């Protein structure tokens, strides 16, 4: 029995026209390298040079990318550098949580790593002897003078630098124990996440060089257009300062001038700003004083955004009506540091809220279904009106006057000549009339003054 969801390169390639028709301009696919046994999620990679054979062959991946490019779409691959699979345990903690250790404190050194596989024939012959991973090696030699390289950051953008010494510096992995305290800057960077993912020593140049070589190879061999970075909060920032420019430079040398890199963030704006090398809000964009050295990731996904969208649209309950407003604010944190006018994240299409029930037993790929056409229209609307993104005048949020529970109104549009009024009703039974003040320039006429939205119980009057 396995727990994998399925899906492969050929299947995705065959569905590209469907995805394109929705209005999507890129596909972001899950990690593609060989994984540990039964890690259904693909984020437990054991070799960054071998494709997971369940997804297909190198040629099939190339075919997928070519087909996407032929349709004018991009292919973004999810990459994981923070961790690999779960081949090690910390001495004395094969089945239990290992408290975090740092250097040598009160007679306790960082842990020795021990290999989970007892059968040596299952290990690889490498330049570093028998190892569970082909390219990244553990080493239990204590180096008393070794220090950690670079500045580390915590949840709020606070930083620490290493004042102590002594670690297993020759090892490509951290030996510090499990990640439990996400508010300790050392632990969030060096701890073993979930206690199950072997944490790479990414602040070390030796590990950086290997990972840079592998991800360069992926761009070159498969012509992919961007990387989505998994768990960047757990990766020392100096890794990104080395890796991200290396990826952009290599892509540019292959004619890919706009190689995209973004990460996942569930953090404060200040931490996010530090990680991406940008200002904490849009007003700081482009001002060096707010940017800590080299810009790293081009942007990020702020996870609360998806939660707000999800609650507002799926629950259809007035208590979640503010979700869209909150999403609207969160979206402004996803700006592209190099090109703020073009970087916008679309919500996951997987939240098929309108046809969720009917599609359980029906055809999920019906391009004529009401849900499909609805999403396609929304995406077309977004692209038409909101491409010029990132300026203050885009951000007007208003409410009906007088306010009505369950009715949400806001304006979008980046010039006074092209405003879009968005009105959402979370009450689908009762008829309501909403009076909406608008801030269009005097003399400009709305295309429609009164909207009857049949079946949704909402009548809108604009004055
Ligand atoms: Ca880490």
TrEMBL record:
One Pfam family it belongs to: Alpha-amylase
SUPFAM superfamilies: (Trans)glycosidases (SSF51445)
Residues in Glycosyl hydrolase family 13 catalytic domain copies: 3-382
One BP annotation, GO: carbohydrate metabolic process
Name used for this protein in its record: Ags1 protein
Organism for this UniProt entry: Symbiodinium pilosum
């Amino acid at each position: 029995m396995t727990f994998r969801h399925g899906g492969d390169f050929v299947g995705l390639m065959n569905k590209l026209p469907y995805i394109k028709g929705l209005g999507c301009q890129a596909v972001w696919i899950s990690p593609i390298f060989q994984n540990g046994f039964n890690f259904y999620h693909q984020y437990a990679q054991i070799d960054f040079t071998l494709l997971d054979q369940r997804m297909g062959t190198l040629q099939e991946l190339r075919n997928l990318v070519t087909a996407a490019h032929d349709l004018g779409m991009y292919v973004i691959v999810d990459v994981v550098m923070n961790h690999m699979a779960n081949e090690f345990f910390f001495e004395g903690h094969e089945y239990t949580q290992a408290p975090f250790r740092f250097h040598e404190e009160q007679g306790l050194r960082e842990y020795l790593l021990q290999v989970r596989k007892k059968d040596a024939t299952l290990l690889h012959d490498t330049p570093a002897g028998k190892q569970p991973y082909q390219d990244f090696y553990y080493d239990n030699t204590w180096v008393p003078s070794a220090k950690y390289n670079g500045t580390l950051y915590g949840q709020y953008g606070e930083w620490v630098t290493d004042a102590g010494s002594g670690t297993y510096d020759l090892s490509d992995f951290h030996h510090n124990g499990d990640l439990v305290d996400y508010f300790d800057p050392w632990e969030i960077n060096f701890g073993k996440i979930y206690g199950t993912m072997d944490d790479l020593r990414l602040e070390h140049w030796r590990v950086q060089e290997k990972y840079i070589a592998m991800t360069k190879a992926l761009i070159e061999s498969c012509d992919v257009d961007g990387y989505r970075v998994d768990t960047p909060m757990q990766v020392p920032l100096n890794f990104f300062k080395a890796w991200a420019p290396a990826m952009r430079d290599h892509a540019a040398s292959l004619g890919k001038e706009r190689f995209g890199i973004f990460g996942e963030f569930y953090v404060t704006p200040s931490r996010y700003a530090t990680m991406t090398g940008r200002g904490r809000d849009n007003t700081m964009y482009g001002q060096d004083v707010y940017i800590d050295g080299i810009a790293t990731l081009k942007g990020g996904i702020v996870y609360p955004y998806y939660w707000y969208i999800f609650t507002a649209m799926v629950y259809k309950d007035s208590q979640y009506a503010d979700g869209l407003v909150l999403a609207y604010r969160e979206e402004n944190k996803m700006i592209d540091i190099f090109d703020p006018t073009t970087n916008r994240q679309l919500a996951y299409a997987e939240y098929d809220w309108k046809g969720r029930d009917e599609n359980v037993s029906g055809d999920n790929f019906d391009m004529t279904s009401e849900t499909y056409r609805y999403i396609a229209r929304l995406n077309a609307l977004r692209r038409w009106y909101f491409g010029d993104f990132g300026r203050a005048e885009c951000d007007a949020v208003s409410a009906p006057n007088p306010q009505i529970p369950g009715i949400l109104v806001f304006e979008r549009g980046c010039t006074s000549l092209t405003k879009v009024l968005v009105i959402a009703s979370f009450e689908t039974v009762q008829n309501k009339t909403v009076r909406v003040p608008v801030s269009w320039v005097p003399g400009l006429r709305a295309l429609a003054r009164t909207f009857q939205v049949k079946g949704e119980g909402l009548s809108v009057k604009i004055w």
